[in-house]
C-alpha cells in the first residue's frame, strides 16, 4: 500500500538535444506544487559534503526522470500529466522535474538541505513530460525503445554515478508524485539516472482491494523494462519496489530467471547486471517470497535488501485480508525450517528492521508504512546501499535478533559519517563545520 506522498517538478534542459521526432511533448496542466522527500541524514550533516561530487553540468535543481507507464494521458484542462485510467499501450518517456521553490538555483537547493524540516516540506513540480513512443512486449528494440535507451545513456555520460535505478511504486499515488520522489532520490544519488514503472492506480483507500490485484497483469511490462535497461551503458541496475509494487517486481524477476534455466548465477548476473534488489514495506506474501521469489532473485542480484517494521499498520491490514503475513512485516513462524535456513545461509540477503528507528515513519497515509522516504536515517541507508552496495556491517548497522537481521544503532549517524570520511576523504567540507 502506498502512503500519500506529494511531489512535483519542472523542465530540465538536459535532453534538449534529443530530436523532437524521437520525443513528443505531452500537453497537460501542471499540477499544484507537490513536495520533495525529506532530506536524508547524510545530506544534513555539516561534517560531510556530498553535493560537490555532482559534475558541474548537472548542478541544477532540474532533473530528468525516465518512465514507462500504462496510464492514459490526462484530458485537456486537467491537472497533472497521466491519469489513473489504464491504457492499452505502455508509453516510454521522460518527466522533467524541478526541485525546490520557483527560481531556486543549485546553491539554494543545496543550502535548503541543511535546514529542511519534515513539517515544512520543500515544493517541487513536474514541468512537462516528453514521450518517445511505446514499449513493445518482446523482440528486437524498436525505434522508440532505442531513443529511450539513448536518452538514458546521454544522462549517464554526464554523471559520475553510472548505476541505473528502476522503481516500482505502490498504490494510491499519482504520476507526478512518483516522478518527484524519484527526482529527489536521483539527486541524492549524485544526479543518477532513474526509471519508474508507473501503473494506473486511484487515490482512495479502498482502491487497494481492486488496484493491487489488477496490477499483477502488468508484470510482463516490468520484465520488458528490465530487459530494455540492459541495453543502456549503466554499469549496474538497482531495483526498488515499494508496498504492492513488490509482488510485481518479484514475479517479473522470477520470470526473467525462468527464461534462462541453463544459466548459472555468474552468467545471469553478467546478463542483467543487477546490483541491489530492495523491497521496502513490501506487500508480498512471505511464504510466496520464500518459496518462489528468493531462490530466483538471489541468482540474479548481487544483494537483496528487505526493510521491515512491526509498526507497519498498512501491512497489518493487508495480512489480515490475505490471512498470511507480508515480507515487510513478516511472521517467521509461517516459514519452514528449510526456508529459514536458506535465508540464514545467504550472506547477500539482508533484513533491515527499522521498527525502533527514531523519527517519522510516514508522511501521510497509514501509520508506519512510508519510512523508507520519510525517515532520514532509513533513507540514508537506502541511498548508501544503492550508491555503494556494501554489506550491512560496512554501513554501520548492527546485528539484530536472527540471522541476517540488522538494526540501525544509536550511533548510526556518527559512525556512518566517520566511516565515509575515512574511506573517501574528498567528502570533507572545504571549510570545517
Automatic annotation (TrEMBL):
<dbReference type="InterPro" id="IPR029058">
    <property type="entry name" value="AB_hydrolase_fold"/>
</dbReference>
<keyword id="KW-0732">Signal</keyword>
<feature type="signal peptide">
    <location>
        <begin position="1"/>
        <end position="31"/>
    </location>
</feature>
<dbReference type="InterPro" id="IPR010297">
    <property type="entry name" value="DUF900_hydrolase"/>
</dbReference>
<protein>
    <recommendedName>
        <fullName>Alpha/beta hydrolase</fullName>
    </recommendedName>
</protein>
<dbReference type="Pfam" id="PF05990">
    <property type="entry name" value="DUF900"/>
</dbReference>
Amino acid at each position: 500500500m502506498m502512503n500519500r506522498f506529494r511531489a512535483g517538478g519542472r523542465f530540465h534542459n538536459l535532453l534538449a538535444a534529443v530530436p523532437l521526432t524521437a520525443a513528443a511533448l505531452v500537453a497537460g496542466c501542471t499540477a499544484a506544487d507537490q513536495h520533495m522527500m525529506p532530506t536524508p541524514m547524510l545530506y544534513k550533516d555539516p561534517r560531510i559534503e556530498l553535493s560537490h561530487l555532482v559534475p558541474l553540468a548537472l548542478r541544477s535543481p532540474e532533473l530528468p526522470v525516465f518512465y514507462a507507464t500504462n496510464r492514459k494521458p490526462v484530458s485537456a484542462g486537467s491537472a497533472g500529466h497521466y491519469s489513473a485510467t489504464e491504457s492499452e499501450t505502455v508509453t516510454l518517456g521522460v518527466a522533467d522535474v524541478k526541485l525546490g521553490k520557483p527560481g531556486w538555483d543549485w546553491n539554494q537547493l543545496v543550502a535548503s538541505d541543511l535546514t529542511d524540516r519534515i513539517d515544512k516540506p520543500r515544493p517541487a513540480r513536474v514541468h512537462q513530460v516528453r514521450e518517445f513512443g511505446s514499449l513493445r512486449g518482446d523482440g528486437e528494440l524498436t525505434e522508440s525503445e532505442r531513443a529511450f535507451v539513448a536518452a538514458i545513456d546521454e544522462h549517464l555520460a554526464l554523471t559520475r554515478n553510472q548505476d541505473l535505478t528502476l522503481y516500482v511504486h505502490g498504490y494510491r499515488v499519482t504520476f507526478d508524485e512518483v516522478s518527484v520522489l524519484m527526482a529527489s532520490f536521483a539527486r541524492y544519488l549524485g544526479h543518477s539516472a532513474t526509471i519508474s514503472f508507473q501503473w494506473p492506480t486511484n487515490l482512495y483507500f479502498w482502491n487497494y482491494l481492486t488496484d493491487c490485484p489488477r496490477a499483477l497483469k502488468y508484470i510482463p511490462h516490468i520484465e520488458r523494462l528490465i530487459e530494455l535497461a540492459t541495453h543502456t551503458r549503466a554499469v549496474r541496475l538497482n531495483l526498488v519496489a515499494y508496498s504492492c509494487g513488490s509482488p510485481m517486481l518479484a514475479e517479473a524477476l522470477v520470470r526473467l530467471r525462468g527464461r534462462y534455466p541453463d544459466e548459472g548465477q555468474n552468467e545471469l548476473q553478467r546478463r542483467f547486471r543487477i546490483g541491489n534488489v530492495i523491497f521496502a514495506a513490501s506487500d508480498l506474501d512471505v511464504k510466496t517470497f520464500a518459496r518462489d521469489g528468493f531462490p530466483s532473485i538471489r541468482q540474479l542480484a548481487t544483494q537483496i535488501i528487505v526493510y521491515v517494521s512491526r509498526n507497519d499498520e498498512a501491512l497489518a491490514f493487508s495480512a489480515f485480508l490475505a490471512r498470511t503475513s507480508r515480507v515487510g512485516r513478516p511472521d517467521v513462524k509461517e516459514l519452514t525450517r528449510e526456508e529459514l535456513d536458506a535465508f540464514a545461509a545467504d550472506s547477500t540477503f539482508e533484513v533491515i528492521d527499522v521498527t525502533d528507528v527514531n523519527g517519522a515513519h510516514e508522511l501521510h497515509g497509514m501509520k508506519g508504512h512510508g519510512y523508507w522516504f520519510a525517515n532520514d536515517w532509513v533513507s540514508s541507508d537506502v541511498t548508501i546501499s544503492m550508491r555503494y552496495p556494501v554489506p550491512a556491517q560496512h554501513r554501520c548497522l548492527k546485528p539484530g535478533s536472527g540471522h541476517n537481521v540488522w538494526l540501525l544503532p544509536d550511533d548510526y549517524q556518527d559512525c556512518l559519517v566517520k566511516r565515509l570520511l575515512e574511506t573517501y576523504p574528498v567528502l570533507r567540507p572545504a571549510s570545517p563545520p
